[in-house]
Amino acid sequence: MKNLLLIIIALVFSTLAVGQELQPIKLLPPQTGNGKSLMKALEERCTTREFSDRAMSLQDISNVLWAANGINRVKEMKHTAPTAVNWQEIDIYTVLGKGIYIYNPHDSTLYPVLKGDFREQAGTQDYVKSAPLNLIYVADYAKMKNAEEAKKESYAAADAAFIAENVYLFCAAFDMGSVVRASVDREKLAATMKLSAEQKIVFGQTLGYLKK
């Protein structure tokens, strides 16, 4: 009887542990008909370093990731941001208060990488650790076939910048704030995210609702 009780207790705790694990987040369809015009967004685009600590809605997360590098031509599986030679080497890691996820634009899903609040590692400034969403742009050099080794860094930087500017314009169009940051402890964060030697952190971008 004692052994049976121990087994039951172990099963209960095992079930609870599984329930506490991060699950994939299926994103919502983007609201492409909303927001300000492109010209108005360009007029209002700016850098913001003060954010509300209010959690970002799933719809806004879905919208911004689609704008960043989502699929805008489904038949050809083409993206909202260009890349050299169509390498598509930039992966977007999303750092939320509950964990780190990687964005898969092909099925519009955030897949869990690591559970826990790692926002403080997403950048060195104080505002990063309380902002609702940090994006980390990671270049996978293994996808850059036939690229000269000396040119991979510049290609990756340009391709990540295209994505970051999409995010800037989205934030301007939806009255949100954003800032691109080179200030990331790349070695520490790469170890936390368990990146391979071919995966290089390019830079980060913090975004969220404007502080009232």
What does the model show?
Helix 2 (38-44) crosses helix 4 (152-173) and helix 3 (58-69) packs across helix 4. The chain has a single domain (23-209), classed as NADH Oxidase. Residues 4-19 have low confidence and may be disordered. Strand 5 (99-104) and strand 6 (109-115) form a beta hairpin. The chain has helices at residues 2-19, 38-44, 58-69, 152-173, 186-192, and strands at 25-26, 71-73, 78-79, 90-96, 99-104, 109-115, 133-140, 176-181, 199-209. By secondary structure, the chain is an alpha+beta fold. It is 31% helix and 25% strand. The strands form 2 sheets. It has a 7-stranded antiparallel beta sheet, sandwiched between helices. The chain has 5 helices and 9 strands, in the order αβααββββββαβαβ.
Main beta sheet strand tally, sense and closure: 7 strands, antiparallel
Distance between the first and last residues' Cα? 60 Å
Q: Tell me the number of strands.
A: 9
CATH architectural designation: 3-Layer(aba) Sandwich
| pLDDT < 50 stretches | 4-19
Arithmetic mean of pLDDT: 91
Number of helices: 5
DSSP strand content: 15-25%
Radius of gyration: 19 Å
Shape, per Cα inertia axes:
globular
Q: What is the CATH topology descriptor?
A: NADH Oxidase
Helix proportion: 25-40%
Structural class: alpha+beta
**Total tally of structural domains:** 1
Q: CATH superfamily assignment?
A: NADH Oxidase
Strand order of the main beta sheet, please? 1-6-5-4-7-9-8
CATH structural class: Alpha Beta
Order of helices and strands: HEHHEEEEEEHEHE
